[in-house]
TrEMBL record:
This is N5-carboxyaminoimidazole ribonucleotide synthase. PROSITE patterns: ATP_GRASP. The keyword Ribonucleoprotein does not apply. SUPFAM superfamilies: Glutathione synthetase ATP-binding domain-like, PreATP-grasp domain, Rudiment single hybrid motif. HAMAP family: PurK. GO terms for molecular function: 5-(carboxyamino)imidazole ribonucleotide synthase activity; ATP binding; metal ion binding; phosphoribosylaminoimidazole carboxylase activity. Pfam families: ATP-grasp, PurK_C. Keywords: ATP-binding, Ligase, Nucleotide-binding, Purine biosynthesis. InterPro entries: ATP-grasp (IPR011761), ATP-grasp_carboxylate-amine (IPR003135), ATP_grasp_subdomain_1 (IPR013815), PreATP-grasp_dom_sf (IPR016185), PurK (IPR005875), PurK_C (IPR040686), Rudment_hybrid_motif (IPR011054). Catalyzes the ATP-dependent conversion of 5-aminoimidazole ribonucleotide (AIR) and HCO(3)(-) to N5-carboxyaminoimidazole ribonucleotide (N5-CAIR). Belongs to the PurK/PurT family.
Length: 362
């Protein structure tokens, strides 16, 4: 098949490589440069976007913030109602979806102006997180509020664009579920993985390193099925959860969803029989999803440093991915998947290597 991916960042490239492995031809569309880039296809470039869309059998994406003109031009080639994609780029419609589908999430309210935000904060007697409705990632576009904090200056800053206020959740840990839904509605999910964030950015993921919790896995898969079925979604989708403890038992609250391959699924490139990129390609091209097997893996993000040290490139337990991006503090520039035998061993790797692999913003 001929596949066109919107976005030419690391996710687009990893999707493209998996597609090539499956025998497909691939073009990437850079939404920054407005250019078409080939990954494999023997084509006469430059191609315009319109020509690339005509060339393709199917259009998919690495990030959901797809320019409106691309959505319109490629409408017939998406396997998914393009109007629904737009709703997923706004936290207000995303939260509404959780409420409609009765998927538990932190209590929230929406605001459109500084005055509305002031009103909400003035009535809150617990800690809150304020999030811009659109465009936030890696914890950007977020503010914290504690009762007693000065409201006006915060409302003036955070209220410059529409957003949501949600209760700060004293979570026990953060986990995510990455899974795929095929065109026939069939679903395949990986086990829940544990995610550690630093300054709002995913630092590392522990996959297959703790005893699976059947009850939480079931809750997560139910949420995944409700959300993807409501969207009539095709492809890989990531769901981020908070694990909360109530009356001695644990339950999940959805934090947010990512309608695409997800950073917390990168471990699967080394730790699974089929990576999340493979699952996405399978879903797009109607190959049965199968049930991926897994091996214990640590995924350590490489953030804001100029290179991955050669000791890791040389270590057979490590699979290094370098995105060929300029390093800036807080910017993801690669990841390393590490084959480990236990959580303790994974934690040792993190202690030893994260200071050398991660430079966060001050
Ligand atoms: P991503 O890069 O995952 O898309 P994002 O910018 O969309 O991140 P969130 O996932 O909403 O942001 O928040 C980033 C992190 O901030 C979360 O992983 C969590 O650690 C913390 N956080 C967000 N919302 C809450 C909340 N309501 N209560 C407690 N912590 C929160
Ligand atoms: Mg997000
Ligand atoms: Mg997140």
């Amino acid at each position: 098949m001929k596949l066109l991916f919107i976005g030419d960042g690391q996710l687009g490239q990893m999707l493209g490589r998996s597609a090539i492995q499956h025998g497909h031809e691939v073009l990437l569309y850079s939404t920054r440069e407005h250019t078409i880039k080939p990954l494999s296809a023997q084509l006469n470039l430059p191609l315009s976007l319109a020509e690339a869309i005509r060339w393709s059998d199917c259009v998919s994406w690495e990030h959901e913030d797809i320019p409106a003109e691309v959505l319109t031009a490629a409408q017939a080639k998406f396997l998914f109602d393009t109007n629904r994609i737009k709703g997923l780029t706004d936290r207000r419609t995303e939260k509404q979806l959780f409420d409609e589908q009765q998927v538990a999430t932190s209590p929230w309210s929406a605001f459109s102006t500084p005055a509305e935000l002031t009103e909400i904060l003035a009535h809150s007697d617990a800690a809150q997180v304020i999030k811009a409705a659109r465009g936030g990632y890696d914890g950007k576009g977020q503010w914290r509020f504690q009762p007693g904090d000065a409201i006006e200056p915060l409302a003036q800053t955070a209220g410059q664009q529409a957003g949501i206020v949600e209760a700060m959740i004293p979570f026990k840990r953060e986990v995510s579920l990455v899974g795929a839904r095929g065109q026939d509605g069939q679903i395949a999910c990986y086990p829940l993985v544990i995610n550690i964030h630093r300054q709002g950015i995913l630092s590392h993921t522990f996959a297959g390193l703790t005893e699976p919790d059947t009850q939480l896995q079931q809750q997560a898969e139910q949420a995944f099925a409700k959300i993807t079925t409501a969207l009539d979604y095709v492809g890989v989708l990531g769901v981020e959860f908070f694990v909360v403890e109530e009356a001695g038992s644990q339950r999940l609250l959805v934090n947010e969803i990512a309608p695409r391959v997800h950073n917390s699924g990168h471990w699967s490139m080394q730790g699974s029989s089929h990576s999340q990129f493979d699952l996405h390609i399978r879903a797009l091209t109607q190959i049965p999803l199968g049930q991926p097997t897994i091996r214990p893996t640590l995924m350590l993000n490489v953030i804001g440093v100029a290179e991955i040290p050669s000791a890791l490139w040389q270590d057979a337990r490590c699979q290094c991915h370098w995105y060929n991006k300029a390093a800036r503090p807080g910017r993801k520039v690669g990841h390393v998947n590490i084959q480990v035998d236990s959580l303790e061993e994974a934690e040792q790797w993190v202690t030893e290597w994260s200071p050398r692999l991660q430079t966060l913003a001050d």
